[in-house]
Amino acid sequence: MWRAMVRDLRAHRGRLAMTLASIVLGVAFVVSSWVLADSTAASVRATDLRSDVDVVVSGHDLTDADLADLAALPGVSAARGVLAGRAALVGADGKLVAGPHDTAGTGWDRTDRFVLTAGREPRGPGEVAAADGTELSTGDTARVFLADGRQVRATVVGTFGYRTVGSEPAPRLAYDQDSARSMFGSYHWIELTGEHIAVPPAPGRQVDTARALGEQATADAEAAAGSTRETLLAFAAVALLVGGFVIANTFAMLVTQRVRQYALLRAVGATRRQVRRAVLGEAAALGAAGATGGVLLGLALAFTALVLAQDDTEFVVSPLGILVGYAVGVGVTVVAAHACARRAATVAPVAALRTDALTPPHRTRRVRVAAGLLLVAAGVATVAATSGVDDLGTTERIVGLVGGIVAWLGVLVLAPELSAALRPVAALLTRLGGPATRLGARNALRDPRRTAATSSALLVGLALVCAFATLGETMVSMFGDTVRATVPATTTVLRPAAGDEPLGTDVLDRVRDTPGVTGAAAQRYGSATVATGGRTTVSAIEPDAFGTLLTPPLVAGTADLRTGFVVGTNEAAMLGVGLGDQVTLDFDGERVTRPVVGLHTTTEAQPLFYLDVAAAPAWLRDRTTTVYATGTDPAAVRTALDRAFAGRPDVRVTDREGVIDEDMGEFAAVLAVMYAMFGAAVVIAIFGVVNTLALSVLERRREIGVLRAVGARRRLVRRAVRVESLVICGYGGITGIVVGVGFGAVMQHVMLGRELFAISVPYLVIGVSLAGMVAVGVLAALWPARRAARTDVLVAIATR
Amino acid sequence: MCPVTTTTAAGADGLTKVYGEGEARVVALDDVTVDFHSGQFTAIMGPSGSGKSTLMHCVAGLDTPSSGRVRLGEVDLSGLSDDQLTAVRRDRVGFVFQAFNLLPTLTALENITLPLDLAGRRPDPALVDAIVAAVGLGDRLGHRPAQLSGGQQQRVACARALVTSPDVVFADEPTGALDSRSSAALLALLRRGVDEFGRTVVLVTHDPAAAAYADRVLFLADGRLAGELTEPTANRVLDRMKTLERVA
Fold first, then answer.
1. CB nearest A435 (choices: B91, B102, B118)
2. Does the UniProt entry include the keyword ATP-binding (chain B) (predicted)?
3. Closest approach of chain A CAs to the CA of B105, in angstroms?
């Protein structure tokens, strides 16, 4: 049996090439994810954390006196104060580069902290060394914005790599000690070297051993690597699922082609079990071969990624990663081939003696239709039941999402029967097109299971892309809509230039003093815990901001913040509170209890609670995140503010469109990465299409021979295969897009709390997908069509 | 009973076909010169390996000769490209093979009109009706091949071969997989193709009873012509075959 199986496998090498390719890709995805995660974790573990420090004392305003006291402690052989402070680098556009900036400046010393990579150390005023990765190199001028508002310029004389004790942020700029002292004042922390050091506790001071900090850093890095691994493996799982469809389909075709062979084996005495095992053994061997290729490709991909990243990450291959690659490759193949193995085993020995074309029996059609309909109905019903927006709690959201997944599975189960919907399309094509179209369209419909299985792989990949595109597009338009609804076009917006750092407390006053400004307010954005629920977002703002500077659409109650909270409708639904109810917000210990006086429509991208700044805790009052300003001539206000803050690198003057663009840019990048990840699944699905076409062409060799004999040119044969490919891809593509947009609607409903059908259709992605499907259809047909056109008429029609 | 004509529908001059090289060299046809007269039913007979199928394949433009010339109507097939040969097959030749003649996705009627479809020609309704009537499929014309019996399938193939009004219809062992009743029906249909539709039919067979439907029987042995017989009967053909096999 085994020998027969191995020979069989070898004989069908060509037919299995595409299947092998899909296993290789899926496994490569898994292995490279694994290796990348391991490597990043290991490089943090192996980054030589510093060994010249034993104890770190940190706190506010550590002075030379503190340093002297610590140096005098028993066991301390050396004590060094580290100067560090805010040094925000100004970019080419005159505004701050992305942070963090709080401890980005430090004083150069000759400890293990610094490893000079170019140039020399800074020696006096006007010189600075820049960390690798800042895009500054020797000879450049570094313009820096200090905490007190001063701006200093210095020439970059060297670049350095930095070693940390634990996971403290690495500084970006190092000045000589005297300059650093004048810029940053006190020590940020003091490093002690020695043995058996016991630092007496003091208020506002923290003492850690270097070993504990290092262990913490390693643990953090491993946790981060672990979550990277999980994220990547989730995408890899999608690729493997799609690969599973391709494998299952290939085995279904191989079994169909070899019915007589199985019958013969059964006739000469093989048991059903032996036949089943032979097919499964074949699958396992194929899986192992694919896994070997996948492991190698995965290692190569991970290695290339690390080389391209150029960050000295060590290339770490763990035996576990390779083992997982093999387990996944063999496992997925065997599971995917299982149903076909069972079908092969049911072939009756008498089939060997029959001459008519045979297919192994399918008995599951009715069961399949029933199960599929049931799943779709249950899924749709569940989604419908949770489609309300007003009472959308966490449970409803999860149930709704599960409903969406169930309906999707139902569509997959029903796919072979749904392809009956292609019949009218094929009839139309037949009427409109020539013989090639007719033959191609009918061939695609010939075995609905095969067409469905082939296009299911595409369906899964494309549906995911379209679902996330729908979610993304909806989020983008929702964000835009909310910002436009909340911030009038006449309002000038001032935001911190460097990410999430708050604006200086002087900004609001300077805005108010700017000529032409008649109204200005500061939003202090923060988070708090609702006593009866989870975390929420709060904006503390001057009550008179509403109406002119900000116009959140009020649906109930009043906008008068002096009397209570104005709360987002969907947040109120999640919390189960209404107008007049008292709500307590807990700001890390400080509690604020007020009634809900107004409800506004908003989204989770905007503050959910508006609070009178007078009632906010003191620390929040000083945390200005955005300043809004307007005047009788809004354009003049904008110009005046632009001019007023031209010399302030920390403040970006913009308007609502600028806010939308800035915030959505990052989001678009995240979506692009996501499309690329799902793209792997689509590529595997394409292999599946090529595979099906190639095997179908082989099966129909005789038919093609007759066609050629009665006068079909090679071109016609090629065109027929291309039409077949286009029908398969079109079916998978269109169902994929429909299912994707539908699931995307459910996702945005449960994640963003919007109306189920209040989606923005991602026309661009859909357009690209459709065009892509046509391109894929044509490309996937290239090779099989050539093979078909080359069919030797004489060989094909020979009876023996 | 047969109309006597002097024109030829197809023919070969000095046709030689060699397969393989060196040790494996096999001469399938050795300098064969033959004419197939228009409006005649010719049978080619010969023992296995005598080259009768190769002769048919070469004359029908399915295979290219090693040397010699092949004429189909007034067209010289030598030196034609694949697309040109395909067009010749489509427009001038009809085929009936031993089995697997029909495309499973097309109905019987669609199979019959397939060559016209491929050529982009409108079928002549009167001719199609006449041929369809001759096939005697009745209401089964809309059925797919899988729903037809073997004999019905072969008659559909025969109708397809006649529908383009080709110069020659080649039939390669068309009765090989049929029982005697179905065989008789198919051969009668080919005979009607000659008598009623005025076609030229070349039938390759090893069955003397089938050859008896022909106007003329050509015998082939070892790749050469080995005589012919006009107005054959099954018994006369059988006698000749026995002689040939004894010689071989």
1. B118
2. yes
3. 6
As for how many domains chain B has, the answer is 1
In a domain, A408, yes or no: no
What number of other Cβ atoms are within 10 A of residue B210's Cβ? 25
A449 part of a folded domain: yes
B101/A435 CB distance under 8 A: no
Say if the ipTM goes beyond 0.90: no
Write down which residue in A164, A196, A228 finishes a domain. A196
**pLDDT at A429 > cutoff 80:** no
Parent domain of B147 = 39-64+74-247
Q: What is the pLDDT of residues A287-317, one digit of tens each?
A: 999 999 999 999 998 888 888 876 667 787 8
CA distance, residue B118 to nearest chain A CA (Å) = 6
Residues of B in Cβ contact (< 8 Å) with A443: 105
Which domain covers residue A60, as residue numbers? 55-196
- Structure-token pair, residue B224: 């050469």
Count of residues for chain A?
A: 800
User: A498 — phi, psi (to 5°)?
Assistant: -110, 80
Q: Using CB atoms, which residue from B62, B118, B160 is nearest to A793?
A: B62
Same domain, A98 and A110: yes
- pLDDT, averaged across chain A: 84
Q: Same structural domain for residues A498 and A633?
A: yes
Between vectors from CA A377 to CA A372 and to CA A382, what angle results, nearest 5°? 130
Any domain includes B240: yes
Cα–Cα distance, A286 to A26 (Å, whole number): 14
Would residue A175 count as lying in a domain?
yes
Residue of B57, B82, B86 lying closest to A711 (CB–CB): B86
Given pLDDT bands bounded at 50, 70 and 90, which one contains residue A502?
confident
Q: Do A582 and A720 have their domain in common? A: no
Domain count of the fold of chain A: 3
Which distant-in-sequence residues (6+ apart) come within 8 Å of A398 by Cβ?
A750
Cα distances (Å, whole numbers) of residue B209 to B55, B195, B225: 21, 19, 21
Amino acid at A576: G
Name which of A223, A660, A234 is nearest A468 in CA terms. A234
Q: Which residues of B touch A (CB under 8 A)?
A: 57, 62-63, 82-83, 86-87, 89-91, 94-95, 97-106, 114-115, 117-120, 146, 160, 173, 176
- Interface probe for B, chosen from A447, A710, A719 (most Cβ of B below 10 Å), is A710
Q: Which residue of A has its CA nearest to B103?
A: A703
Q: Residues A664, A785: one domain?
A: yes
